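thread from #wetlab-drylab

HS: before we spend reagent money on co-crystallization trials with D-xylitol-5-phosphate, can we at least see a predicted complex? here's what I'd submit
DV: go for it
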Amino acid sequence: MIKIAPSILSADFCDLARDIQRVSSADWLHVDVMDGMFVPNLTIGVPVVQSIRRHTEMFLDVHLMIEKPGRYVEAFARAGADLLTVHLEADMPPALHAALAEMDRLGVKKGIALRPITAAEAVIPYLREDGVDLILVMTVEPGFGGQSFMADQLPKIRAVRRYIQQYRPECRLEVDGGVNAETARQVVEAGADVLVAGSAVYGAPDPAAAIAALRG
Ligand code: DX5
Ligand code: ZN
């Protein structure tokens, strides 16, 4: 079953409550946290996640695009995140393994994300040793919404799907960046089962219709 995760990065932050309501037919809410270091942009932090949590019961999929994300795992977990995803490039492996173990202790689901440059093989230890719940393959350079889908990531999505089937079939495979009704079909065919979409949902005249179109 495919899950659709609208990214509030493309919402109107002055009217976030309304814009969350607009995507209530989706499955998850994707929250992009950026620190101006790991990516050249700043977005939202812990207090905003806390406010969103009070406002909605949707599953909060929090994508941490921050250096040394272990520093903030506890704060985002306590703020109400359901799933925290950390980037493989954001710290050394021992620190990432520790961050994932902390997510377990705090009772949140745990994911790892790959920038376009990072090879599929990098996910293997995290599937085997950490039992991650989700792998996020970026199909744009992280940092901004509204970029074009990188079709050269499709073979990587297929490879990650093979590793998931081999080592941890219950793990979800999420794709983020340039996903619209057309590219959604390609990533689902390649093995994705969670689709993040910012501009394709919030840039559409009818977000609910856009969500339905993404489901295919
Ligand atoms: C980009 C973010 C994405 C972004 C996707 O770094 O991780 O979640 O919101 O936006 P679109 O769907 O417009 O590419
Ligand atoms: Zn994201």
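DV: The first helix runs from residue 16 to 21.
HS: ok that's useful, forwarding to the group
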